[in-house]
């Protein structure tokens, strides 16, 4: 199924505003993204939804969004500078994207450094847009920005035992390849050369959920994304995820999410309301919880709230450059 958000073209890295990403007037539906991006909020207060999880935003909030996730913004939208890149942009560079938190409220010297790098990257993207030799500069600027974000303190979840974490990482990658074709944990165990018990132990250590729950939640998340951000018929979405019968897909989705596919889609056809007031601050900073991978979609009644809001810090708004033109099949 096609992704929204504009064609990637030949440009490995580009910058734009959050408003430029809108799938139509008023952000009437979530947007299914075709490239990774960072969004630095420079104005406004409100709540965005990333894979159906609410994230409170104000100036200095930084969002890390992965290709394939769905994003929905309030109306009127926040002001934000967006840095977007294709997978080839980081080829050969030692950057661990998994170490970049999906939500972070910048403050103090950290805010100054990140804002300066985002601003300079935006300037150079515009100034050298048609200069092939500048791609190396932009790639390394992006890598430095991402590396800086991985080094920011706080927000890292407790590490699981090394053996379980390694097993879970292999399992997660295999699930990403295989979830449209099979939901049987036995199939993944066979591919990885281990037992179902080993996979379940690793998943419990890292996520607190069984291997079967991890697989089913990944399927439900993708179904939620496609229902919310596309006009594909429900039956076709079910078939793309391994369900030969629409009724089986409907039962599965309702069990996992807590709403039927049709009700879930209808509930996300209304834009998010805007907010003109700053959200209340919380006692301490944090980086939020990962919004991608094997997590329950936000339609589930037990979905966790957005990350805590840190105290206000000094934020310098980026200035626009003055010299630049403008998965086996199952029931």
Can you tell me about this structure?
This protein is α+β, with helices and mostly antiparallel strands. It has 2 domains: 13-157, Regulatory protein AraC (Jelly Rolls), CATH 2.60.120; 162-267, Arc Repressor Mutant, subunit A (Orthogonal Bundle). Helices cover 36% and strands 14% of the residues. The strands form 3 sheets. A 5-stranded antiparallel sheet has the order 1-9-3-6-10, with helices on one face. α1 packs antiparallel against α2 (135-151), α6 (211-229) crosses α8 (246-257) and α6 (211-229) packs across α9. The radius of gyration is 20 Å and the shape is globular. Residues 1-10 and 275-331 have low confidence and may be disordered. It comes from Micromonospora endolithica. Residues 169-267 form the HTH araC/xylS-type domain. GO terms for molecular function: DNA-binding transcription factor activity; sequence-specific DNA binding. Residues 266-331 are annotated as: Disordered.
How does the SSE layout of this entry go?
Blueprint: E1 13-17, E2 31-32, E3 36-43, E4 46-50, E5 53-57, E6 61-65, E7 70-72, E8 74-75, E9 79-85, E10 103-105, H1 108-127, H2 135-151, H3 162-178, H4 185-192, H5 196-207, H6 211-229, H7 234-240, H8 246-257, H9 261-267, E11 272-273
Parallel strand pairs: 8-11
Antiparallel strand pairs: 1-9, 2-7, 3-6, 3-9, 4-5, 4-7, 6-10
Helix pairs in contact: 1-2, 3-4, 3-5, 6-8, 6-9
